[in-house]
Amino acid sequence: MDIKRIVVGPIEVNCYLFVSGIELAVVDPGDEAEKIIEEIGKLGKVDYKYVLLTHGHYDHVMAVNELKDKYGFKVVIGEKDADISGMNAQIGVQTPKTKVDITVKDGQVLDFGGQRIQVLETPGHTIGSVSYLIGTDLFSGDTLFRHTHGRTDLPGGSDEDMGDSLEKLLKLNEKINIHPGHGEETTVEEEREFFKNHQF
Ligand SMILES: [Zn+2]
Prior knowledge:
The chain is of the alpha/beta class. The chain has a single domain (2-196), classed as 4-Layer Sandwich (Metallo-beta-lactamase, Chain A), CATH 3.60.15.10. The chain has helices at 33-41, 64-71, 84-89, 159-170, 188-196; strands spanning 2-8, 13-20, 23-27, 47-52, 74-78, 102-104, 109-112, 115-121, 130-134, 137-141, 144-145, 148-149, 177-180, 186-187. The strands form three sheets. A six-stranded mixed sheet has the order 1-2-3-4-5-6, with helices on one face. It is globular and about 45 Å long. The structure holds zinc ion.
């Protein structure tokens, strides 16, 4: 198993390539499709399985169509964020129509390279934000960042939901590595310690 982080776009979104067995998932291809395609090319022969979207904001989705057209990925997103164009129009940003193949909800499991992708609904940043847990790796989107969390003041955001979602993630096994939507990577152990002394 192998994880590669690629920082893309003007808002510096973390896009991740995750290989399990011979299958590839791409988390949040936010922009700069050529850069992502170049990194995918270095992987050698893999099956192009999923694009996993942590939420629908434009800075996380702008390269989805190019990757899907080129490789045939199945695009996965939380069911409440499935109207990608609609939610971005609410914040005044136009996004290309993005085809979603699979909408997921809490507790749902997807097969991936002999492993399981477990879906955790983590609303607060958007109403349909999800985190993906694969083995000991968690992709937390704009819910949990290193020593902070995502903003809650955009449409669909909620402080109360964010608090519940952070509690949910910090209860996971302390050995889990966290790969957030922006900034540096961290662990459940480190964030649990941090948030003991800092309010959500
Ligand atoms: Zn966002």
